[in-house]
Design goal:
Blueprint lengths: L1 H14 L1 H24 L7 E5 L7 E4 L5 H23 L3 H31 L1
Antiparallel strand pairs: 1-2
Helix pairs in contact: 1-3, 2-3, 2-4, 3-4
Length: about 130
């Protein structure tokens, strides 16, 4: 039953070519994001501030470089969520909202790339 729903939603996405091209653009932006961020992460002994808490003695908590891989997972999550939302909006006939969600997804990836590269560069500077 779930496989038929997935096929039906994919069919509604491929019927409208501009929406389909926007999905491809979103996937291409994900590939670029993953390559840029993934190639800029290098193993090091430098720890990065990852969390702030108002509880306890220390307010800033540091983690090792493996935490930076979560930036890549965030990009994949953003694209999966936006493509799913675009498919749902397209299925209920909200084509303009699907376009808006697609463009917002690309904008979020661009902003996330800027933040990710800024955080990754902190590890190289130290």
């Amino acid at each position: 039953m779930a496989l038929t729903k997935i096929r039906q939603i994919a069919k509604t996405l491929t019927i409208d070519r501009p929406v389909m091209w926007l999905v491809f653009a979103l996937l291409f932006a994900l590939v670029v994001y993953l390559s840029v961020v993934g190639l800029s992460i290098h193993p090091s002994d430098v720890t990065v501030y990852t969390r702030y808490s108002s509880f306890g003695d220390v307010h800033f908590y540091k983690s090792h470089w493996q935490y930076l891989l979560m930036f890549m997972a965030f990009g994949a999550f953003v694209v999966a969520f936006h493509v799913g939302l675009m498919a749902k909006l397209q299925a209920i006939g909200r084509r303009r909202a699907a376009f808006l969600v697609g463009w917002v997804g690309i904008a979020i990836l661009i902003i996330a790339c800027a933040y990710s590269l800024a955080v990754v560069s902190l590890g190289h500077a130290a």
